[in-house]
Each structure stands twice: as structure tokens, then as C-alpha cells.
């Protein structure tokens, strides 16, 4: 099957005049770039170029995996990085491909748009002289009515079927009816390709003007926060966003409910919060997985949850300090790990000097449901039998060196170089909520209780809804383009040879302008009744 | 119920296998094709997944007595329909056991997608019995995929994790399952077109020799390929590139994040778009275009098996076993 009529060529035949070689080169390259073949090749390149993005860990997806890759492949990793392998979709070569593709697209669709606009305004052309040469042809048949009436009746039928129709009078008393239909196919195709462009542009703008940050929000009024980058555990601002541009809101979590299946599979989560936007007052709101809290210029998504432990340390001088520390879940049953570090304790009230050797840190595992077997693995994610296993360390926590250590583990180098010493026994101390533990130097740690925390992803993407509109329009265009068919039909109605008896002779021809398997039937249906004798072509060619 | 579902699953595979053997029997004992290039009858536009316009074998002058091959083919169809019924029963019991739609993990996903593929195939078969010879390849594909589902992806019945509690789950997953199923069945005439076309061009090496007994014209196979793809592509676009991102936005906070599954959906989409382009470009041969369609199917398989098994991503149903 061939397409019966090619797409309008992008460039018209060059006028016969002297051509500047540079100009010729440019024009040829442009023509090359905007050809369908090039588009095809570029589409392929795009697909191939995306593959490394799924093979190598991506910074934008999971930064930790990238570091793991560095550890696992110390030789290879820098090379992968040099070629943008850890951030494929922001790399120069990926951008090069899609920018070329979209240039090609623009170069391809703009002329088509012009052409199509013209086609929409032009009336269907006069019937070709020899209708029998067309792919569909209904040979001349007599009709009972006069040519003018017949032609008008035909035109009415065609218009009824949404053909654009034009009746012309022919010399010699005949009429021709030209009809065309299926402009929506090209309209849809253009709509689709323009929608693609808009999606790309929207994607780019969203990236430039959007931002996002993640943080853990522990339940309790004292744990609330106000939107600013210092409040985030990690964040990313678009290139056109500064810290001052973040929308103003404050939020605190009053309650977090989690329910579980008896197997420990989570059933539902619900975060109850109070939020205040701009200078307004706090209002209540709640949100859950799949149902974010939508604020002005920011959406708050619930992406995880866990337990934070409230611990109180009372030092040698009887001074107490409270800390609420989130522990990170390590398995589906919420076995959680974390640390509590107290750098500013054991300060002698007389000298008011901090002793680096007397800082205290605790490291351990929290089990919401501890078992009787003594293993440090939780049996259930809800708090049926909460127990905390802790080890205590004293010495220099290594927090002041200016490096950003993890807040979920003690500094290993301090332990190996002996600056930080374990002061509890080999077996960690087990603590239930409310219990306390007296250390070797008489200081005391109390496990006050637990609170739930929610892991939040807070995002703003200004073009998101625009993109949705673009994508939906694109889909509509795609369907019109795939399922539409452009075709032309002509009737020639001449006066009957026998002028006495009156009547007319009708001949018809049809031209599918795109690959359209059903055209023969449509043509038969249209020409059949019109010729009044009940059958058009016998069978089909 | 879960146990019943597993047993039905085994029966389903066996029934497909039986159908496949009988289809193969028809191949082996059947007569050579009556028609090289049947005159192509062309009907209706590309609106439906089940085409009507696939040319029928030119009816033999006299009705002949069905031979061994013919009988084998008829029995194959019976097995095939039986397999489809068992397939449906497997899915239903699985859904009842889990008390939800059976689309919650990779095993169920493959089960559903192959069911759609199989249903479309049987639909095609009922409308155009002459295409029966494609059954060998359709049932082969189904047996392989179902076998793989049972062996590498089997997951015990369980409830949905909260991340899947969303009506977008139904919209996104069902459209992708249907489009994958249609792409799957579209790959069959695509492959057969290449075989038949090669045979018609005089190639006599192995896969092309299969073309000897294919009664349908290459052109008709190509058209069927296009129709199935043209149906599946917008659906896939909707499922993967619209419904998916909408859900991802609500669930993960970003509509598109180049998670491995998203990357491969993008790749499949681009490859299938390239197929449609290639087919619409007169200077590109239909064989080349069809190869691109097959490549698209390979990328779908990659997304299903490769990504689920080898890459770590956010799609929580993607964990196997
Ligand atoms: C981002 C890249 C592109 C994508 C994803 C894309 C996708 C598509 C799709 C899916 C179709 C199928 C609709 C149909 O068959 O009618 C299509 C058709 C078409 N595309 Fe593109 N396209 C892209 C770029 C281009 C470019 C650069 C050109 C120009 C060289 C182009 C020209 C066309 C034409 C002429 C058709 C109509 C084919 C027909 O008559 O059916 N496209 N495109």
C-alpha cells in the first residue's frame, strides 16, 4: 500500500537563479533535518540514549545508589560521570538529540500548518477529466431527474455526511459535484505534534521554575516547621528559583495514624496536620498516600513514615536535655535504626566549658513489636511491644569538624581512632517506654516515649497542569490522526442523451488521499443509492 | 481460592500447550496455501482492534473434505478457546482470593496482559477463521509468557500496599495491560508478515520456510499488524504517559522522574512512534517498519521482565516472588 498522495513537500523547487553555496548548504541541511527519515533516526537515537538512564543509577532518582556505584566500581564510575551517565536526562548529549528532534519537528510542522491552513480554505477542486482513472470509479448510469436536481441532491447527501462539497456548472448543461472529507486527520496530526512541542517546553519551564525538598516531620507542636530551605534534609531548586521565592507556609503534625493487615502489610496511613499559609491562621488538614495536601504553590506528599524516639539525658551536674530523634526503618516491620547525640552535656557550671571527652551518644535499634526471642528484629510494624536496644558511647562525637555527618549513625572514624568509646557492655541495653538506664558515671538516660513521624516530599511545579492539558490534546490529536481518513469524491452529472425523456447520466470517482482500507465500501455506499439502481460497483477491485 | 487459581493456571498453560501442538500439527500436515497473494478486500477504518478486512483465503473451488491438518487446526481452536476460559477462571479466582482486581504484582500483571492478548486473538480468529495458522505463534507466545510468569514472577496472593490504593491504579494499570496485550498479539502478524514476505521474495532459509504454508497474503498480515498497533498505541500513550504521570504526581509527588520503568515506557513509546512514522513514510519499506514494531515489542518485554527483575524502582508491584 502506498500513500496515494505524498505529504506536501516542505520546500518548493528553488527558483532558477544563482545560488550562494553556503546558502545552498544551509538549505540542504535544513531540508535534511526536517525530513521524515531524519526524524526517524533521531527518534531512534532518543530511545537508545535513554537506555543508560535505566542502567546506571541516576542522581535525580536515587543519590545514594550513585555513591554505592562509586564504591563498587571505583575505576569506572568517574568515566560514567564524565559522560553524564549518572544524570542522563540532563546531559548535553541527551539534550542535543531532543533539541535536534524538536527543531526537526518545528521545521516539519510549520510548513505543514501553512499548507493545511490553505487546504482548509480552498474548495474541493474540480473533478479530473477522466474519472475512470481514479482508484474508485462508478461508471456512468442513468438517473431519473434533471442534472441540476440530481447534482443538488447528491451535494445534500454529501454535506449530510460532512463532506465539504462544491457544485459547479459545466458547459453543456451538466454539473459536477466535488467533495472532500477528513481534514481532521491532518488537523489532528498537527495538533499532536504541536502538543509534543508544548509538552517539551512545559517540561523545561517546570524544571526551571520548580523546586522540591524532603523532610521528616515528627508529630508534636514543638516539631513543626516553616517552609525554607534550611528546613529540608535535602532539596533542589530550579535554576530560576532562589531561596526567597519559596512559598510561605508553616505546618505541624498533630497525629499520624497507620493501620496494618495482620500480616504486617500496611493498610492505610493518614497524617493530620495544621497548616498556615502566608499570614493566615492555622487550619486543620489531612493527607495520605496518593492524596497529597495541595497548598498554594506547593504540594505536600506523604512518601514514608516511621518512629521518632523521645529521649532524656540527665548529666553529671543534673542537667537534663530532651531530644526527639527519628529512627529510620530498615524493614517492612519497622525495625528502625538511629542515634541520639548529646554534644552539649556534662558542662561544668563553674567553668562553663564543654569537655570534648564527655560528650555522649547512643546508637541502637527500635522495635515497635519486640519478640521474646531477643533478636533485634521487629515482629510487627505497630507498637504492640515497643522496645529499644541501645549502646552508649562517650568521648568526642566528632560533630564540630565542620563535615556533615549522618544524623542516623555515629561517626565511625571517631570510634576507630578511639576518640569515642563504647561505655556499655557487649549486649545493648533494652529499654521500654518510661524506663531509664543509669550509665557507669551515674548519668541517666530515660526513654520517654515514641512519636510517629512522616516523611514528606514538598514540591512545586508551575507547569504541571499545563503539561496535562498538552498531553491530553496530544492524545486527541493522535487519535484523530490515526483513525481519520482524507478522501475526495466527485460526481459528474450530465444531461441524458435522450433529451425527450429527460433525466441525467451520473458518473463518479473517488480518491483516498491516505491509506484507507474502508474507502471502497464508503464509495460504494455513496454512489450506490445515488445512481438509483441499487448497486454501484459489483464487488470491489 | 488461591490454591484453585494456581491449579487453574497450570491447566491454562497445558491447554495453550495442547492448542499449540495442534496448531503445529496443522502446519505439518496441512496443505500448502491456496493463495499467494489473495486479492485484498478492504473494509472499515482502523477503529477496532479486531479487523474485518483481513483477506480470506480464496475459497477453494469445491469444498474439499477436511484433511488431517484441517482437523488438527479445528481441535487447536477448541483447545485455544478452552484455554481462554481457563485463563479467565484463573484470573477470576485470583481476584476473588485477593478481594481486588488481579493486577497487584508482576505475576498478576502478566496473567492479565496475556489474557487480553489471548482474547483479542480469539476475537480475530472468530471473525477471520482463515487466520488460524497464526495460532501456532500466538499460542507459543502465550505459553512462553505464562510459563515465565509462573516460574520467575509467581507471588502469593496478598492485599494491595497503600501506594496502590487509588482509582488511578485501575485506570493506569488496566489501560497498560490492555495495550500490552494488543501489542503482544500485534507482534504475531508482524513476525508472520516478515516470514511470509521473505518467502514470497524467494528466501528459503529457516524461518522463511514457515511462510510456505501461510495462506494469508503478506500485505494482509502487514495491515493487521498496523491495525493492532494503531489501536494499542493511543491506549498505551494514555496509560503510560498520561494516567501514569497523573498518578505518579499524586503518589510520589512528581509526574515524571525517570525511574527505570518510566525510562522503558518512554523507550517503548518512542519506538512505537517510530514504527508509525516509518509506516507513514513511503520511502521506508514496510519490512523495515515492521521490524521496528517488533523492536517495540522487545522493549515492552524488557520493561516487563528486565526492569522488574534487574533494576530497582518505585513501582511496588514490580517485585517478583
Ligand atoms: C518527538 C518526536 C516525534 C514524535 C514522538 C512523533 C510521533 C508521531 C506519531 C505517533 C505519529 C502517528 C500519527 C499517525 O500515524 O498519523 C506521527 C505522525 C507524523 N509525524 Fe511525527 N513525531 C515526532 C516528530 C516528527 C517530526 C520531526 C516530523 C517531521 C519530519 C514528523 C512528521 C510526522 C508526519 C508527517 C506524520 C503523519 C504520518 C501520517 O500521515 O500518518 N513527526 N508522529
- The figure for the number of domains of chain B is 2
| Low-confidence region ranges of chain A | 1-11, 530-541
Termini Cα gap of chain B = 19 Å
**DSSP helical segment count of chain A:** 10
Helix amount of chain B, in percent?
A: 55-70%
- Cα radius of gyration of chain A in angstroms: 38 Å
Strand content of chain A: 25-35%
- Shape annotation of chain A: elongated
Q: How helical, in percent, are the residues of chain A?
A: 25-40%
Overall mean confidence score, pLDDT of chain B? 80
Distance between the termini of chain A: 14 Å
Instruction: Tell me how many strands of chain A there are.
Output: 22
Oligomeric state: heterodimer
- In total, the number of strands of chain B is 0
> What is the rounded Rg of chain B?
20 Å
Question: Per DSSP, what share of the residues of chain B sits in E-state strands of 2 or more residues?
Answer: under 5%
Structural class of chain A: alpha+beta
Count of runs of 4 or more consecutive helical residues of chain B: 9
- Summing up helix and strand content along with how strands pair, one would put the structural category of chain B as mainly alpha
Characterization of this structure:
The complex is a heterodimer of chains A (541) and B (321). Chain A has 541 residues and is of the alpha+beta class. Chain A is 29% helix and 30% strand. Chain A has 10 helices and 22 strands. Chain A has helices spanning 21-33, 36-55, 63-72, 76-82, 92-121, 147-160, 183-209, 412-416, 464-483, 519-530, and strands at residues 136-143, 164-169, 175-181, 211-218, 225-226, 234-237, 249-260, 266-277, 283-287, 293-295, 298-314, 320-326, 328-329, 336-342, 359-367, 387-395, 420-422, 429-431, 436-438, 444-460, 487-495, 504-512. In chain A, strands 4, 6, 10, 11, 12, 19 and 20 form a 7-stranded antiparallel beta sheet that branches. In chain A, strands 13, 14, 15, 16, 17 and 18 form a 6-stranded antiparallel beta sheet that branches. In chain A, helix 5 (92-121) packs antiparallel against helix 7 (183-209). Chain A is elongated, with a radius of gyration of 38 Å. With 321 residues, chain B is an all-alpha fold. Chain B has 2 domains: 1-31 and 68-159; 161-321, no CATH class. Helices cover 68% and strands 0% of the residues of chain B. Chain B has 9 helices and no strands. Chain B has helices at residues 2-29, 68-98, 106-127, 135-152, 167-200, 206-209, 218-252, 260-280, 286-310. In chain B, helix 2 (68-98) runs antiparallel to helix 3 (106-127) and helix 5 (167-200) runs antiparallel to helix 7 (218-252). The longest helix of chain B is centred in the last third of the chain and has 35 residues, at 218-252. Mean pLDDT of chain B is 80; it is low at 32-63 and 316-321. Classes of the chains: A alpha+beta (541), B mainly alpha (321). Bound molecules: protoporphyrin IX containing FE. Protoporphyrin IX containing FE sits between chains A (7, 34, 36, 39, 43, 101, 104-105, 108, 189, 193, 196, 478, 481-482) and B (273, 276-277, 280).
Amino acid at each position: 500500500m502506498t500513500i496515494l498522495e505524498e505529504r506536501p513537500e516542505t520546500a518548493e523547487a528553488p527558483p532558477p537563479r544563482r545560488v550562494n553555496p553556503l546558502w545552498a548548504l544551509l538549505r540542504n541541511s535544513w531540508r535534511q533535518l526536517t525530513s521524515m527519515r531524519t526524524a526517524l533516526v533521531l527518534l531512534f537515537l532518543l530511545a537508545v540514549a535513554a537506555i543508560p538512564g535505566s542502567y546506571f543509577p541516576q542522581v535525580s532518582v536515587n543519590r545514594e545508589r550513585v555513591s554505592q556505584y562509586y564504591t563498587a566500581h571505583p575505576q569506572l564510575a568517574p568515566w560514567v560521570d564524565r559522560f553524564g551517565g549518572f544524570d542522563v536526562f540532563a546531559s548535553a548529549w541527551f539534550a542535543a538529540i531532543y533539541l535536534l528532534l524538536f527543531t526537526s519537528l518545528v521545521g516539519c510542522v510549520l510548513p505543514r500548518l501553512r499548507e493545511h491552513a490553505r487546504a482548509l480554505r480552498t474548495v474541493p477542486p474540480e473533478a479530473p477529466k477522466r474519472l475512470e482513472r481514479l482508484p474508485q470509479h462508478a461508471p456512468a448510469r442513468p438517473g431519473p431527474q434533471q442534472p441540476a436536481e440530481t447534482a443538488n441532491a447528491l451535494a445534500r447527501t454529501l454535506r449530510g455526511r460532512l463532506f465539504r462539497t462544491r457544485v459547479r456548472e459545466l458547459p453543456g448543461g451538466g454539473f459536477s459535484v466535488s467533495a472532500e472529507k477528513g481534514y481532521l486527520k491532518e488537523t489532528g496530526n498537527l495538533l499532536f505534534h504541536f502538543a509534543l512541542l508544548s509538552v517539551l517546553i512545559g517540561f523545561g519551564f517546570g524544571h526551571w521554575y520548580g523546586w522540591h525538598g524532603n523532610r521528616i516531620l515528627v508529630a508534636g507542636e514543638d516539631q513543626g516547621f516553616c517552609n525554607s530551605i534550611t528546613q529540608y534534609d535535602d532539596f533542589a531548586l530550579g535554576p530560576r528559583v532562589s531561596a526567597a521565592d519559596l512559598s510561605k507556609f508553616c505546618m505541624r503534625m498533630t497525629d499520624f495514624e497507620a493501620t496494618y493487615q495482620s500480616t504486617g502489610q500496611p493498610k492505610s496511613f493518614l497524617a493530620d496536620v495544621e497548616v498556615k499559609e502566608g499570614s493566615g491562621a492555622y487550619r486543620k488538614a489531612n493527607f495520605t498516600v496518593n492524596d497529597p495536601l495541595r497548598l498554594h504553590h506547593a504540594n505536600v506528599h506523604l512518601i514514608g513514615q516511621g518512629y521518632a524516639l523521645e529521649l532524656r539525658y540527665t548529666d553529671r551536674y543534673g542537667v537534663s536535655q530532651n531530644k526527639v530523634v527519628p529512627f529510620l526503618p530498615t524493614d517492612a516491620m519497622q525495625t528502625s535504626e538511629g542515634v541520639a547525640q548529646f554534644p552539649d552535656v556534662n558542662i561544668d557550671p563553674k567553668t562553663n566549658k564543654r569537655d570534648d571527652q564527655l560528650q555522649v551518644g547512643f546508637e541502637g535499634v527500635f522495635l515497635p513489636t519486640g519478640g521474646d526471642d531477643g533478636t533485634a528484629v521487629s515482629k510487627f510494624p505497630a507498637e504492640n511491644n515497643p522496645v529499644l536496644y541501645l549502646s552508649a558511647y562517650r568521648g568526642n562525637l566528632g560533630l564540630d569538624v565542620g563535615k556533615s555527618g549522618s544524623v542516623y549513625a555515629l561517626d565511625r572514624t571517631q570510634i576507630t581512632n578511639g576518640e569515642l568509646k563504647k561505655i556499655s557492655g557487649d549486649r545493648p541495653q533494652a529499654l521500654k517506654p518510661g524506663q531509664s538506664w543509669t550509665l557507669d558515671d551515674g548519668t541517666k538516660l530515660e526513654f520517654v516515649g515514641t512519636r510517629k513521624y512522616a516523611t514528606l516530599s514538598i514540591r512545586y511545579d508551575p507547569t504541571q497542569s499545563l503539561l496535562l492539558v498538552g498531553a491530553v490534546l496530544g492524545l486527541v490529536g493522535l487519535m484523530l490522526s490515526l483513525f481519520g481518513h482524507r478522501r475526495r469524491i466527485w460526481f459528474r452529472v450530465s444531461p441524458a442523451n435522450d433529451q425527450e425523456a429527460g433525466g441525467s447520466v451520473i458518473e463518479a470517482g473517488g480518491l483516498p488521499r491516505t491509506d484507507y482500507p474502508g474507502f471502497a465500501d464508503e464509495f460504494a455506499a455513496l454512489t450506490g443509492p445515488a445512481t438509483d439502481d441499487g448497486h454501484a460497483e459489483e464487488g470491489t477491485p | 481460592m488461591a490454591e484453585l487459581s494456581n491449579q487453574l493456571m497450570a491447566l491454562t498453560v497445558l491447554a495453550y500447550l495442547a492448542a499449540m501442538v495442534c496448531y503445529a500439527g496443522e502446519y505439518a500436515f496441512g496443505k500448502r496455501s491456496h493463495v499467494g497473494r489473495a486479492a485484498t478486500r478492504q473494509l472499515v477504518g482502523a477503529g477496532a482492534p479486531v479487523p474485518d478486512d483481513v483477506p480470506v483465503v480464496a475459497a477453494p473451488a469445491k469444498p474439499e473434505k477436511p484433511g488431517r491438518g484441517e482437523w488438527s487446526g479445528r481441535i487447536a481452536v477448541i483447545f485455544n478457546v478452552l484455554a481462554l476460559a481457563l485463563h479467565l477462571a484463573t484470573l477470576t479466582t485470583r481476584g476473588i482470593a485477593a478481594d481486588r482486581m488481579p493486577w497487584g504484582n508482576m505475576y498478576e500483571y502478566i496473567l492479565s496482559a496475556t489474557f487480553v492478548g489471548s482474547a483479542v486473538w480469539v476475537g480475530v480468529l472468530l471473525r477471520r477463521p482463515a487466520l488460524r495458522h497464526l495460532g501456532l505463534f500466538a499460542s507459543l507466545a502465550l505459553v512462553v509468557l505464562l510459563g515465565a510468569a509462573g516460574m520467575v514472577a509467581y507471588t502469593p496472593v496478598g492485599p494491595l500496599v497503600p501506594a496502590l490504593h487509588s482509582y488511578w491504579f485501575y485506570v493506569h494499570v488496566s489501560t497498560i495491560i490492555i495495550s500490552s496485550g494488543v501489542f503482544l498479539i500485534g507482534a504475531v502478524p508482524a513476525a508472520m508478515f516478515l516470514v511470509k514476505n521473505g518467502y514470497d521474495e524467494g528466501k528459503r532459509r529457516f524461518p522463511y520456510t514457515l511462510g510456505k504454508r501461510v495462506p494469508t497474503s503478506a500485505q494482509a498480515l502487514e495491515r493487521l499488524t498496523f491495525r493492532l498497533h494503531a489501536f494499542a498505541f493511543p491506549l498505551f500513550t494514555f496509560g503510560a504517559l498520561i494516567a501514569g504521570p497523573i498518578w505518579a504526581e499524586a503518589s510520589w509527588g512528581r509526574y515524571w522522574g525517570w525511574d527505570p520503568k518510566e525510562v522503558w515506557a518512554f523507550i517503548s513509546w518512542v519506538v512505537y512512534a517510530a514504527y508509525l512514522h516509518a509506516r507513514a513514510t513511503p520511502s521506508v519499506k514496510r519490512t523495515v517498519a515492521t521490524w521496528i514494531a517488533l523492536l517495540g515489542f522487545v522493549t515492552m518485554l524488557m520493561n516487563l521482565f528486565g526492569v522488574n527483575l534487574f533494576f530497582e524502582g518505585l513501582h511496588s508491584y514490580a517485585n517478583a516472588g
